[in-house]
Amino acid sequence: MLGEIVATVAFGVWVYLLVGRGGFWLAAERDTRDEPGPPRTWPRVVAVIPARDEAETIGATIESLLGQAYAGPFSIVLVDDESRDGTAEAARAAAAQAAGRLTVLPGRPLPAGWTGKLWAVHQGVAHATSTPESPDYLLLTDADITYAPDALARLVGRAQASGTVLTSLMAKLRCVSLAERAFVPAFVYFFQMLYPFAWVNRRRHAIAGAAGGCMLVRPDALQAAGGIAAIRGALIDDCALGAALKKQGPIWLGLTDRVTSARPYDHIGDIRRMVARSAYAQLGYSPLNLVGTTLGMGLTFLAGPIMALVGHGLAQMLGFATWALIALSYQPMLRFYRGSPLWGPALPAIALAYMAFTLDSAYQHGRGRGGLWKGRVQAQPQAQTQAHADARADAQAGAGAKVAEQK
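Predicted structure:
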């Protein structure tokens, strides 16, 4: 009897997720959908890049940005965040043929209450907006991101056509190694489950989010939201910024093939560290939320397959049906990453690994190593912004209410 109840609830959860969670699993919100075309005018854009020990990738990022087929004024501000590997020199070398379009700022020492990345972004934005020719848009991007030649023009065209204050593209992550093929598509899938892009893009919906690798921002909206200082302690800074800016106007987030990340995750340990850096912050550093999330993930991804393997009668039938829905829901993301459809039935095992990564995130926080990134421990529970807290609460409340309905 208990098995039938668990199997029924798990199946009901998946029916809701497929039909009532913003179509997150369809991976339909892309920059190729309803593409507005080139900009009507060519506004001034300044790219701001925070960089700490990024000598291996910064050259390709700078070259791709300087190679943009963009007819308007465009320049780059790179903030060298106390790098020890020659990041600034590598950036200057990549821009040797484009004198005057790259400014390298030495980052100032990190003050209390800030994460390293946001402190660097803050300095870059302050420099970019302090000049007499202030930009119409800021492109906030990472030091491992490369852009197709038409990416900026299309990004600006979309922002102009839709009037968005934030236009963000989820950079296509590298998916080459076995660890990447197993875990990278799932990372994006889970992100979309938590922040359905269709809901992010709906003006009146409470859910807000962004992808930090590529964010085109209107400076006036950023200033009205309190600037980067308003989210200075947020580890999940992109979604915190999305929440802050959605209060100022419409935002848009989508998948893309035009913007890619070169950062490698060759081993499972690399994936674990990437997730563990911020997973517990997503839960508000709350042990209660951690327990609830673990149980919820177990019910959602593990109960069905377990019932399929060990259950009997109705429980087993519902278990197999649930497992089939899980595998089906993963197929659009696998196609986007050109992955084998056979990874679909393996999604419960992948989800179990992500649960372990999340528990490790809490463990690292307890050890005083939360938010560890390139030698810095950055987790600061007291500095979490209200915007980030609101976005997280909205995401969890939306899922929790629907699960409760199914029960």
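Summary: Confidence is low (pLDDT under 50) at residues 382-407.
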